Amino acid sequence: MTCASVLLGHSPSPLTSQTRSRSRRSTTVCCRCSQQEIMAVVKAIRVMRWEQVEVGEPKDGEIRIKNTAIGVNFIDVYFRQGVYPAPLPFVPGMEAVGVVTAVGPGLTGRKVGDVVGYAGNPMGSYAQEQIIPASVAVPLPPSVDHKTAAAVMLKGMTAHVLLRRVFKVQSGHSVLVHAAAGGVGSLLCQWANALGATVIGTVSNEEKAAQAAEDGCHHVIIYTKEDVVKKVKEFTDGKGVHVVYDSVGKDTYKASVESLASRGMLVCYGQSSGRPDPIPVSDLATKSLLVTRPSMLHYTGTREELLQSAGEVFANVGSGVLRIRVNHTYPLSEAARAHADLQARRTSGSIVLIPDDDKED
């Protein structure tokens, strides 16, 4: 995708009708700076800016979609910060819902007007319009609205993988969920509760504690005021939990390990506080512990796995097992503000970006 003129908060000169007939343009948020610059501003929100980019026409096996709602996830922050590498410049975002506006030559099974969602690769959903492989697009059930779908696909499939594939939670298990009021954390708590597990969640304040309790946490620990390990042992009669779901990383690793029961599993699926320190194998030997760092993409790599995971998420949304809180919406042009609020932990539930009106029309 070739980056073109910078918008800087206003629209460039309108395209001529002749140019419009040859190509399509889409306003995007694009991370654009050199490798040297990214090292200097690797944590700077201002690294994202509006630009015009050529979208073009879909090729074999591709579709073009006009996004109606775009999910914001912490993995977007990781890419922007350089925690995960990406070629520069790049368009962030790994989740969106939209309407198909064009299909590649000879493609069957998709048509203009279809409503689809996708989560994962390819990166680039912070855009009004984009081209994606048809194989990653999932039909959106009519019962699920666009904002809800954009808020739940990546987080919901992550929760599905963590609860049903990485460690299969069952009735009688006890689980500890860090960041229990966050986007994935909220879904983990609701789903684990529905599976019959005893759910313990950690949060930073009373407001988030109330949300975590509403989402199915049997016990909530305010980690800014309470000792996490001590409270976990209290809630589990000194045994510890069968599994810890940890998206925080550096700040929570020690408490996570100490909260596990014998033969328990630590599932690290994020690092919002930074990379954890190297883990000495000897830390695991005392209780025969297991540690894993899964990626949702590795568990939805085939079309069958993708449809199964997305299908279970949408089914649970439809049945009411999963209640999706889209607590924060921002215009796509204000994606930097959304990132700032997410990093500062000023958000709870899910964040959705709504594409700005196309000012060229």
UniProtKB/TrEMBL annotation:
<dbReference type="InterPro" id="IPR013149">
    <property type="entry name" value="ADH-like_C"/>
</dbReference>
<dbReference type="InterPro" id="IPR047618">
    <property type="entry name" value="QOR-like"/>
</dbReference>
<dbReference type="GO" id="GO:0005829">
    <property type="term" value="C:cytosol"/>
</dbReference>
<keyword id="KW-0521">NADP</keyword>
<comment type="subunit">
    <text>Homodimer.</text>
</comment>
<protein>
    <recommendedName>
        <fullName>Probable quinone oxidoreductase</fullName>
    </recommendedName>
</protein>
<dbReference type="GO" id="GO:0003960">
    <property type="term" value="F:quinone reductase (NADPH) activity"/>
</dbReference>
<dbReference type="InterPro" id="IPR013154">
    <property type="entry name" value="ADH-like_N"/>
</dbReference>
<feature type="region of interest" description="Disordered">
    <location>
        <begin position="1"/>
        <end position="22"/>
    </location>
</feature>
<feature type="domain" description="Enoyl reductase (ER)">
    <location>
        <begin position="43"/>
        <end position="353"/>
    </location>
</feature>
<dbReference type="InterPro" id="IPR036291">
    <property type="entry name" value="NAD(P)-bd_dom_sf"/>
</dbReference>
<dbReference type="Pfam" id="PF08240">
    <property type="entry name" value="ADH_N"/>
</dbReference>
<dbReference type="Pfam" id="PF00107">
    <property type="entry name" value="ADH_zinc_N"/>
</dbReference>
<dbReference type="GO" id="GO:0070402">
    <property type="term" value="F:NADPH binding"/>
</dbReference>
<dbReference type="GO" id="GO:0035925">
    <property type="term" value="F:mRNA 3'-UTR AU-rich region binding"/>
</dbReference>
<keyword id="KW-0560">Oxidoreductase</keyword>
<dbReference type="InterPro" id="IPR011032">
    <property type="entry name" value="GroES-like_sf"/>
</dbReference>
<dbReference type="InterPro" id="IPR020843">
    <property type="entry name" value="ER"/>
</dbReference>
